[in-house]
Amino acid sequence: MNDDQIKREADDAKLIDDAFQHLIDTYMASRHRKKVDVITKAFNFARQAHKGVRRLSGEPYILHPIAVAQIACEEVGLGSTSICAALLHDVVEDTDYTTEDIENIFGAKVAQIVDGLTKISGGIFGDKASAQAENFKKLLLTMSDDIRVILIKICDRLHNMRTLQSQPANKQYKIAGETLYIYAPLANRLGLNKIKTELENLSFCYEHPEQYAAIQKKLESTQASRHILFDSFTAPIEKAMKEMGIKYVIKERVKSPYSIWHKMQTKHVTFDEIYDILAVRIIFTPQNREDEINECFKIYVAISKIYQSHPDRLRDWINHPKANGYQALHVTLMSKQGRWIEVQIRSDKMDEVAEQGFAAHWKYKEDGNIEMSEDDGELNDWLHTIKEILDDPQPNAMDFLDAIKLNLFASEIFVFTPKGEIKTMPAGCTALDFAFSIHTFLGSHCIGAKVNHKLVPLSHKLQSGDQVEILTSKSQHVQPSWINFASTAKAKAKIEAILRRDSRETQKRGEETLCAFLEKNDIQYTNTTADQLAAIHNIPKRESFLQALGERTILLGDSDLNVLKGKKAKSQKSKGWRKYVPFIKSDKDKNNEQQQMSLFVVPEKFNRKKPIFITDDNIGQYKFMHCCHPIPGDDILGFIDTKKQIEIHKRSCPVAAKLKTSFGNHILDAKWDMHRKLYFDATIHIEGIDRIGLLNEVTRIISEQMNINMHKVVLSCEEGIFKGTLEVRIHDKDDVKAIIESLKKVDNLQKVTQIM
C-alpha cells in the first residue's frame, strides 16, 4: 500500500469516526433512554459489512447509513431501535448477511424494521409491473406493522436527495420525480413538515434548476423589504403579548421555492402576485398545559383588536387537528401597508408536532415497542384505510399509486353524521365518498343523501360543517358511473372491486351464451373463435366482447355464422393514426423531406446516462406528446416507450410524473439544440376590462411589432369583462415570454398567461 492510499484510508477513518461521534452527541442530548452500547455495536457491524465500498460520490459507503441515522435521531426524534435499524438498513440488501443474522445479534425488533426496509428496496417483479409502485405497496404493508419502517425510509430518501448531484441527469429526474410523487406527500401525511419542504425543494432544484435559481434570486432581492414589513407588522403584536404576560417567540416564515413555483403554475400568477410569501408564526409556552387552547384564542382576540382580520380565512386546526396531527390557529390580518399576512398561533408542543410529526407523541416501552398515544387516532384510521385498499388492490400498480395519492395530498374538511359525530374527510369529497367511509354496504346501496336536511345526489360535493344523512335501498347496486365522481381512495377501491366482481359474473354469463350459440351450430368453442367474433363486432378485447354478450348489448346471428364458416365479411373501420409532432416548417423548409423521417428506435446497447439533443434536423425522430405540449426552452425529458421509441415530455407534466415513478429506468435526459428554424404552436390566455380598440392594440403588438403569426383568436365579453385565447406560432419559449411581457403593458389587460 503506497503513502497516498494510507493517507486516504486515515482521512476516511477520521471522517467516519467524526460522523459517528456527532450522531452519539445528538442522541445523548435527546430525551431518549441512553443505549449507546447497542448503537455503537450496530455501527461497528455496519462499518465492517460495508468495508471497502464507496458511493458514486467517492466517499465511504458507511457515511450514508450514519447520515440516515443522524436524520432519524436529530430531525425526526427517533430512539436507539430506529438508529440501529438506520445504521443497518442496507446490510441485508448489499452484503452476505441475512435478516436472521441481524435478529441473532440485535434482536427481533431491529431485525423486523431492517427486513421491512429491505423488502421495500428489493424484490423481483414481472415485466409489466411497476417496480416502484410494487415497492410502495410493500412499504405500506410493512408500515402497518411498524411505522418506523417508513420513517427511516423517508430519512434514507432525504439523504439520497441531499447527495443527488453525483447521479447522472436521467437518474436525477427519476429519483426527484419519485420523491415528489411518493415521499414528500408521505412525509406531509406523517406530519414531517420540515422534511416534506426540503424534499420538495430538492426535487424542484434538480428538475427545474433555472426556475429554482430565479425564485431564490427573487426571494433574496425582496428579503430586505420583507424584514421591514415583518418588523413593522409584529411590533404592536409583541407589545400586546408582553402586556398579557405570555412567554412567546415570533418567527418569520417564508414560503418555500417549490411552493411558490407550484402556486405560479397552478394559479397562473407571477412571483409578484403571490401575496402569502411572508407569514408570521407566534409560538408560546402556556402557563398551564390544560389551558393551551384557550390561550391560543386569547392571543387571536388580542391581535384582532390591532389588525382587521379576513372573515373567510380563519382556520381552526386546534379543535379539529389535521389528519397528520397538525394543530394551530391560522388567521389572516390586514397590515398597515395594505397587505394580507397570515398569522399562525401555536403552543411550543404544537410546534414540535408540526416539525417532527407523530414521532413527537411517541412513548417507548422498556422492550422497545411503540406505544401510541390517544393523539394518534387519526394516524391509525389512515393506516386502517391503507390496509383496506391493500386487501383488495387494483391489478394495475399505477392505479394503486393514484388511489393512495388521493389520500396523501388531500386537505381535510369536517362533516357531521345525523347523530352529530364529526368525521374527517378529504376536501372535494362527495356524499358517495362519505357513505363508503362509514361502511361498504352503506356505500354500495346508497341512492342519495340529505345534506343539511336537503335532498342531494350522490355526486354532491361536501363542505366543511355539512351534516350528512345517507339514503339507501336494497335494490340499489354499484353503478360504473360512480367511479367518475368518487374521490377518496377507499370509495374508488371498493367501487372498482365490486365492479370487477360484477364484470366477472357478466363475462361468465356471456361465455355461457356464446358456448350455447356455438354448440347449437356445431362449432367448437376456442379463444380464437371468440376473438374472431369480437373483431366482427369491433371490440378489441375478448373480455369486453363476453361482457357485451352477458349484458345482451350484442346478439349473435346469421352474419356471425357466415364469417365463422368462411364467408367474406364486410371490412370494418380503418385503423386510426396519431400525429405526434406539434411543429411546422418555416416556408423555405416546407418541401424538406426530412419532415417525413421515421421515428428513432432505441438500440440494444444505448447509453441511457447521456443526454439526447433535439435539433432542427432530428426533431421528427421523436414523439412530442400532447399531454404537455413541450416547446424549445421548456425543461424536458425523454421516455423510452414500449415500441423503443422516445417520447418527449415537460419535466413538470403530470404524465411524466407517473412515468418517472413507475418506469424510472426508461427516463432519459433531453436537451434542446434548436436554431429558430421551426415554428411551434403556443396558446396565450388574456383577461381584462373591455374598452374600444383593445383587441386592435393586442393584435398590432403581436403581428406588427413582434412580427409573430397569429392564426386563431377567441374572445368573449360579459358585463365589461373580457376573456380570450390567442393561438400564435413561435420559435421557442423566449418568444412566448416576450409576447407576455409586451401584452402586460397594454392598459386594461389584467392577466396574461401561457396555457400549457
TrEMBL record:
Function text: In eubacteria ppGpp (guanosine 3'-diphosphate 5'-diphosphate) is a mediator of the stringent response that coordinates a variety of cellular activities in response to changes in nutritional abundance.
CDD domains tied to this protein: ACT_RelA-SpoT, HDc, NT_Rel-Spo_like, TGS_RSH
Domain annotation TGS: ranges: 411-472
Family (UniProt): Belongs to the relA/spoT family.
Classification via InterPro entries: ACT-like_dom_sf, ACT_dom, Beta-grasp_dom_sf, HD/PDEase_dom, HD_domain, NT_sf, RelA/Spo_fam, RelA_SpoT
Organism: Xylanibacter rodentium
Pathway: Purine metabolism
PANTHER family linked: GTP PYROPHOSPHOKINASE (PTHR21262:SF31), GUANOSINE-3',5'-BIS DIPHOSPHATE 3'-PYROPHOSPHOHYDROLASE (PTHR21262)
Protein name listed in UniProt: Bifunctional (P)ppGpp synthetase/guanosine-3',5'-bis(Diphosphate) 3'-pyrophosphohydrolase
Ranges for domain HD: 61-161
